[in-house]
Amino acid sequence: MKRGYQDSPSTSLGPPQSRARNNPGGDSQFLEDESMKIFARKVADHYSARTNQTLEEREASPIIHLKKLNNWIKSVLIQLYTRQGDAVLDLACGKGGDLIKWDKAKVGYYVGIDIAEGSIEDCRTRYNGDAAHHMHRKKFTFPARLMSGDCYEVTLDRVLAEDAPFDVCSCQFALHYSWSTKARARRALANVSALLRPGGTFIGTMPDANVIIKKLREAEGLAFGNSVYSIHFDEEFSEKKFKSSSPFDIKYKFHLEDAVDCPEWIVPFHVFKSLAEEYDLELVFVKNFHEFVHEYMKKPVFVELMCRLGALGDGNQDRSTLSPDEWEAAYLYLAYVLRKRGQPDRTEINGKRDRGLMHISKEDIMYVR
Ligand SMILES: C[S@@+](CC[C@H](N)C(=O)[O-])C[C@H]1O[C@@H](n2cnc3c(N)ncnc32)[C@H](O)[C@@H]1O
């Protein structure tokens, strides 16, 4: 569903004409920064323009089972790595689709930030219990703050100095938007590292570069996909070879039916892992979604959760499940967990939660630029 936004002035400038990596001068740096801002705005406008769906619209979605599977994967990550009372930072929180999951995990404090102003507004109404399909839900039990800003540009530890440290940082289906430049990727990881306590956990989901590159190489041209998704690379990648010396700004156009239609960037996982180590974030695990499902469906508690969410039917009458095309789309993603080095300081009590509110008005949303 589209909110009906006009293209912002920045997006109407069109795609960037210059690629700075071929011209490493001062001007080119400026052009690169400007073009990345244009792409970040494109992504923000795309997500801002999507309105909350009604329950009926959601159930009618051609990827309803994939959406449910994604929710199951995020729920499993949250249940595995969150403890009661934890302070949580949700980077690129979107419309607050994970608020209920955090509530079930009984978190003590929540800060959500997203570049898309429209999504933060939807998140606010959802948190307040004003969203149409949440009307009958009990109020969320944790205080929260919401912000709008570019998580891969802004030095968040300054903005959130009073709220940190966080026990858990989550970045669901969004870290790849930082991989347009090394500076943005570094900023993303620096923010996570600076805001997590020692021993704190960073959980997330993002596209699996290995799968995407493999599919690109198997495809006849520069595009591939099925009835629910398509991926399109530009001519500049026609050789389908990627230099290990340039692991950033490998852009493709991603379309996921009823969900996404915007530029995304390849995140070579080994580069992500070693860059994260520079910021004291150590890999706990990485799993493609297929492997993740097979592994956690061995645990009865998560089987039961899967039945409740209904991605693979409800275990009784409802035998509806992901279509083969949805299951193939799920293969495009991976889940990761990293841990911030150091021993948790048991004496440190996060007393910053009084900065959170139980009801958030429009004026309470902070815009960080
Ligand atoms: C696929 S949605 C995921 C939303 C949410 N995490 C979820 O799982 O439901 C991707 C989100 O990333 C956000 N995003 C993209 N680039 C961003 C940036 N530079 N800073 C903050 N948020 C960003 C988008 O606005 C969008 O809400």
Automatic annotation (TrEMBL):
MRNA binds at N70, N71. Keywords: Methyltransferase, mRNA capping, mRNA processing, Nucleus, RNA-binding, S-adenosyl-L-methionine, Transferase. The keyword Metal-binding does not apply. One of its GO terms (molecular function) is mRNA 5'-cap (guanine-N7-)-methyltransferase activity. The record marks K95, K101, R126, H176, E264, Y333 as: mRNA cap binding. It is an enzyme of class 2 (transferase). Residues 7-21 have a biased composition (Polar residues). Residues 1-30 are annotated as: Disordered. The keyword Transmembrane helix does not apply. Residues 61-341 form the MRNA cap 0 methyltransferase domain. GO terms for cellular component: nucleus. S-adenosyl-L-methionine binds at K74, A92, D114, D150, Q172, Y177. It holds the Pfam family mRNA_G-N7_MeTrfase. CDD domains: AdoMet_MTases. Its EC number is 2.1.1.56. It is found in: Nucleus. Signal peptide: none annotated. It comes from the Eukaryota. Its main location: nucleus. Belongs to the class I-like SAM-binding methyltransferase superfamily. mRNA cap 0 methyltransferase family. mRNA-capping methyltransferase that methylates the N7 position of the added guanosine to the 5'-cap structure of mRNAs. Binds RNA containing 5'-terminal GpppC. This is mRNA cap guanine-N(7) methyltransferase. It comes from Quillaja saponaria.
